[in-house]
């Protein structure tokens, strides 16, 4: 079992305060689908207004073209660093998951996604893209939290369903 820093350390390091956190832990590459998540996040942000949660994108940012495209998309959607944090690699993924209210995994192709399995092992609810690896990891009970690939509205709907219902988040995380 990895040594854990406190949840407050990750919140402090990323300057997240007491806001609710939704995280995606995946390297930013063309094979993941951060673009759909960013588009979905605009819907989520608009739903909450002042009490909005924050999206933390954790993972390597080595694919500079994809990172630039993603930041431009966020800017064009009116999303700022107050809405989305590009955290880069994190030292302890378990700490970020433990601090998160929800983990999202948006991808176009995937084997068995480590971040989804780690989130489930730590009792964190997951929303993901409906592709074979995610479907297999979440199982039949988690299938209602799968969204079609590249469907930002469906992804946002599932994120909002879990963010709006703490009891459902807890149940799904078990």
In terms of structural class, how would the helical and strand content be classed? alpha/beta
Average pLDDT score: 92
Q: How big is the Rg? A: 15 Å
Strand content: 5-15%
Biggest sheet overview? 6 strands, parallel
Q: Please mark out the parts with pLDDT under 50 across 5 or more consecutive residues, or reply none.
A: none
End-to-end C-alpha gap: 19 Å
DSSP strand count: 6
| Total of helices | 8
Widest beta sheet: strand line-up? 3-2-1-4-5-6
- Taken in chain order, the helices and strands follow as HEHEHEHEHEHEHH
Overall, the morphology is globular
Structural commentary:
With 174 residues, the protein is of the alpha/beta class. Helices cover 44% and strands 14% of the residues. The chain has eight helices and six strands; from the N terminus they run H-E-H-E-H-E-H-E-H-E-H-E-H-H. A six-stranded parallel β-sheet has the order 3-2-1-4-5-6, sandwiched between helices. Helix 6 (132-138) links the parallel strand 5 and strand 6 (146-147). Helix 1 (7-13) crosses helix 4 and helix 2 crosses helix 7. The longest helix is centred in the N-terminal third of the chain and has 15 residues, at 34-48. The two termini are 19 Å apart.
């Amino acid at each position: 079992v990895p040594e854990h820093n406190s949840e407050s350390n990750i919140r402090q390091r990323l300057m997240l305060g007491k806001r609710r956190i939704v995280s995606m832990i995946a390297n930013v590459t063309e094979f993941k689908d951060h673009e759909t998540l960013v588009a979905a996040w605009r819907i989520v942000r608009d739903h909450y207004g002042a009490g909005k949660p924050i999206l933390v994108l954790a993972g390597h940012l080595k694919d500079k073209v994809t990172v630039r495209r993603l930041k431009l998309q966020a800017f064009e959607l009116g999303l700022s660093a107050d809405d989305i944090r590009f955290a880069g690699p994190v030292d302890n993924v378990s700490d970020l998951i433990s601090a998160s209210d929800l983990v999202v995994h948006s991808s176009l192709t995937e084997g068995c996604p480590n971040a989804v399995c780690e989130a489930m092992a730590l009792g964190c609810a997951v929303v993901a893209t409906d592709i074979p690896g995610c479907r297999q990891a979440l199982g039949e009970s988690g299938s209602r939290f799968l969204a079609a690939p590249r469907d930002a509205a469906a992804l946002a709907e599932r994120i909002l369903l879990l963010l709006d219902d703490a009891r459902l988040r807890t149940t799904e995380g078990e």
